[in-house]
Write a structure and sequence with these properties.
mainly alpha, MetI-like fold, 2 domains, 11 helices, 76% helix
């Protein structure tokens, strides 16, 4: 397992380099000009000097090489400086946002807690709800619980998150006034009352994302459980006199979790990407809101960094899913 993990980590390096190149070239070919927001009264020679200050005067390959050095070499040293108080990056150029002229990773770190509050919590809640529903629906196939769970999961999977979000705002914010419709980014949790307010303002966006995630995972969990409940080893376990709880939770569940692990692991980066719409609806000042603002302002360094982070999450959780295969199924060996 250790050899396989090391080998996959080594192979992920050229994969990530290729992904970063594709992202960079796509953004270069995309329409738009960072100078489009500059007033028309600014003289052309001043605009040209502004473009050179942003680094747009360099050739494409030079700008890509600079971004690679800044992201893979300088930014990790910045993390070391912040953790241990060193000064490794003194005088080195970092990836700067064209909008704010601030380091991109500093802005990402500032916005990350807001995204984790909503996206991370919604994914955990969705998975915790989906697994028992999928298990019990499969065990009680065609029962009232199974039919109700199938109906709700189809709604959660089919209805887009922007519609669900707006519907909840109209019902619970406008008409009932139970929850705030706009997420207060400046709110800090310091005592019990502030914690309750935090729960109230994340309730609706978390519910929207959790419903979508639970609908997808529960369907996979149910299908996997049904496939394993009819296997010969289940009948053998029952014939040996094992209790139903032991058969279902110990034997069937472990084998059923193998394909579900893929859905759960690969769903993490998808949720970060899909939360862009939810963050826009509820005005959550997270990574999704940051990406939309960067796209509208043609802030290519910010867009490139955020999209590459999403790609990095996909590669990382692919590796995590493969490693979990070997843990859940002893028949799988990576020799």
């Amino acid at each position: 397992m250790l050899t396989f993990t090391i080998r996959r980590l080594v192979l992920s390096v050229p994969t990530l380099l290729f992904i970063s190149l594709v992202i960079f070239l796509l953004l270069e070919l995309a329409p738009g000009d960072p100078m489009a927001q500059v007033p028309l009264t600014v003289p052309p020679d001043v605009k040209e000097r502004m473009r050179e200050a942003l680094g747009l005067g360099d050739p494409v390959h030079v700008r890509f090489a600079k971004w690679l050095v800044q992201f893979f070499w300088v930014e990790p040293q910045v993390l070391i400086d912040n953790l241990f108080g060193t000064s490794l990056t003194e005088g080195q150029q970092r990836v700067l946002s064209w909008q704010t002229r601030s380091p991109v990773m500093d802005i990402v770190v500032q916005r990350l807690p807001q995204t984790l509050w909503v996206v991370g919590l919604s994914y955990v809640v969705g998975v915790l709800i989906a697994l028992p529903i999928g298990i019990y629906s499969a065990y009680r196939q065609y029962s009232m619980f199974d039919q109700l769970g199938t109906f709700i999961s189809m709604i959660g999977f089919s209805v887009p998150t922007f519609f669900t979000g707006v519907l909840l705002i109209v019902i619970f914010s406008v008409h009932l006034g139970w929850f705030p419709s706009i997420y207060d980014t400046t709110h800090k949790v310091t005592d019990w009352d502030s914690f309750v307010h935090q729960l109230r303002q994340i309730a609706m966006p978390v519910f929207v994302l959790a419903l979508y995630n639970a609908a997808q995972v529960s369907r996979f969990m149910r299908a996997s459980m049904l496939d394993n409940l009819n296997q010969d080893y289940v009948r053998t376990a029952r014939a040996k006199g094992l209790g139903e709880k032991t058969v279902v939770l110990l034997h069937v569940l472990r084998n059923s979790m193998i394909p579900v692990v893929t859905v759960i692991a690969l769903g993490v980066p998808q949720v970060f990407g899909g939360a862009i719409i939810t963050e826009q609806v509820f005005k959550v000042n997270g990574l999704g809101h940051l990406l939309i603002g960067a796209i509208e302002a043609n802030d290519l360094p910010m867009v490139q960094t955020l999209t590459f982070i999403f790609a990095l999450l996909i590669v990382l959780f692919n590796l995590i899913a493969d490693v979990l295969y070997g843990i859940l199924d002893p028949r799988i060996r990576y020799d």
